[in-house]
Amino acid sequence: MRLHTQWLRLVMGAAVVTATVGVAVQAPAHAAAAPKRGGPVPAFYVPPTRLPATNGAVIRTEQVKLALSGPVVPRVFPRYATRLMYRSTDANGTPVAVTGAYFEPTKPWPGAGPRPLVVVASGTVGQGDQCAPSRALSSPFILTPGPSFSGGLELPAIYRLLAQGMAVVETDYIGLGTPDRVHTYVQRIDEGHAVLDAARAARALPGVSITRDSKVGAYGYSQGGGASASAAELQPTYAPDVPLTATYAGAPPADLAAVTAATEGTEIFAVIGYAVNGFVSENPRLQPVLDRYTNDAGKAALKDVATTCIADTFARYAGGHTSTWTKDGRTLNEIAKTEPLLREVFAQQVIGTMRPAGNVRVATGVNDNLVTHAQVRTMAESWCRLGGNVTYVPVKGPRTPSGTVNHFAPLILDQAPAVTWISSQLRGSSAPASNCAAIPTTR
User: 333, 322 in Cβ contact below 8 A?
Assistant: First the structure.
């Protein structure tokens, strides 16, 4: 049986099983006809009307019991996490409330100096508020009204980091979980700010073992790879107080024009809608352009995906094209080539134009034709030319008919090496921090 067929059956099988026996069901207190997808937003996630004056300031916290904890795996993982809301700033300079979760390790830090902190930036989970990673802590899978299916995508990486004695904070990103705004998917400034301010917030929590002298790492793959890469670029100017020492950027969407073109026709093509919704929400000038080109089906699809998680998007839209969303039959990427404002948006989102802080490990699947290998390699080369300390890692994953498999297989193959690398960097490894000179001959 082909690998991609096995993978698709595994995903759908997991969804069915967890939806019936292993999933936390979050439902309204009273049954109602046609409930809103995702159900009511928990009160914790509703931002206050007034925000603190400082980026990274903690707004509120609550304790959450973890699904994998305590007697099941004694002395390895914590029993509880701290869900938190903190202040950040969006690309327009507007203060925003962001949620996430902090994990205090039970294992001691084996390195010299204070325990380090790693900020985990999640891969794509969706655009609906019910998809926020911090809502999938007590159960790895959640079924909410609609129905909508989501899960803790980064929990395996988080547990690997905790097992090596590193503290972890995971950000939900701007607009994901909090109902006051749209999640600005793959908006590099919003995501980079959310990562850096999560580090500030974690250090401000009472009773944690990290200190202001703790080294900080950033870890992310796919959307998370772009967020961690952006954080590395923005740290010197936005958060010089955050000692970002090591960044793992796996499969970052560094060139959105290339990535959106590659996403057309794949199982997850409708994530393009997440990006469109996010950019329009922060830049109202885009709305008339969008209205001019999208047909009724496109408008309905954009409204729909704004409330979905990635599994929902997969189930409803797999294999489609944005050409079915437009009046003239062109894809949104093709339209962007002729619209100056859209070209400007793509240009503003390119990652690789500023030297990254600290040491960076850039990983990319050589057969990744979704978040394409070539544009990741270009980012790494650009960083090298700017004087960055870059370790470039081409991951030789499978090449299948499924772009989704080609993209996610390197995540699995490279996760343990990536965690080992970030741990060694935070311990002060003397290993070379860059292989820039070898990139031109590395395939």
Answer: yes
